[in-house]
Amino acid sequence: MFAAALLLAQTAPACTAMDANLPAPLAGWAMTHKGLMLGHAGTLDATDGKATTDFRIDTAGTYGIALDQPGWIDVAAKGGAALVSVKHGHGPDCSTIRKIVRFELKPGAYTLTLAKLTKPVAKVMLVRD
Fold it and tell me: For 109-119, what is the mean pLDDT?
């Protein structure tokens, strides 16, 4: 009986609408365009499960890359090795954000590489904490 009660307590919430009540930093997830942009979701075409794009950071801080599907998220300073992430997490309940990986970034040019994607188009968003 206790196990059944515990299982019910862990059940995901019933969603009346996906992406309807996202927190302010993720509200731009509904505004899709081509590419990667701070605060607005974009799409990247994937080839053989991989997509890449360049982006620029003007202010140092913790930034997240939100992704709509399973996949590997790497960020590297332009021409450099992949950075170590500082936090991994899932998107909010009742959202189509599958995961968010965060990195400490300084001003400069970066390359985002997505790998092991399961769909031909990836929806991504750059988020500032």
Answer: 98
* pLDDT class of 89 with cuts at 50, 70, 90: very high
Report pTM: 0.86
Please give the Cα distance from 129 to 117 (Å, whole number).
25
Q: Are 107 and 57 in contact (CB under 8 A)?
A: yes
Tell me how far apart the alpha carbons of residues 117 and 53 are, in angstroms, rounded to a whole number. Answer: 15
Q: Is the pLDDT of residue 104 over 60?
A: yes
Which residue stretches of 1-129 are H helix? 2-9
Domains delineated in the chain: 26-128 (2.60.120.380)
